[in-house]
Amino acid sequence: QVQLVESGGGLVQPGGSLRLSCIASRTFLGDYGMSWYRQAPGRERELVARITTDGRSNYLDSVKDRFTISRDNTKSTVALQMNNLKPEDTAVYYCNVAEKWWGQGTQVTVSS
């Protein structure tokens, strides 16, 4: 069992930035892909960004060039740097490991 704890969400104005972090309870996460998903009210959960074990990443089209996913295997963490945030980025953001383990989610609200 892997426990994931997200942090860094909050309220930000359009154009602002937030950095989400996720720390895992186990130390061998270097063996797994790690991802961030989000779910807005009334919408299905969607993949925002994924990073492979060797550091390759891919992104949802609407966040490309604004969001950056990174990982630190020595600290069992994955982060999501979000810049130039837009109201449509408002959602609960979830950390995921290996498409198997989920965090509890952290709320991101982009509003003026």
Summarize the entry for a quick read.
With about 110 residues, the chain is mainly beta. About 0% of the residues lie in helices and about 50% in strands. The N and C termini lie far apart (about 40 Å).
Detailed description of the structure:
- The mean pLDDT is 94.
- The strands form two sheets. Strands 2, 4, 5, 6, 9, 10 and 11 form a seven-stranded mixed sheet that branches. A four-stranded antiparallel sheet has the order 1-3-8-7, with no helix packed on it.
- Strand 5 and strand 6 form a beta hairpin.
- With 112 residues, it is mainly beta.
- The termini are far apart.
- It is built from no helices and eleven strands.
- 0% of the residues lie in helices and 49% in strands.
Main β-sheet description: 7 strands, mixed
Shape: globular
Mean pLDDT: 94
The DSSP helix count reads: 0
Task: Provide key terms for this protein.
112 residues, mainly beta, 4-stranded antiparallel sheet, globular
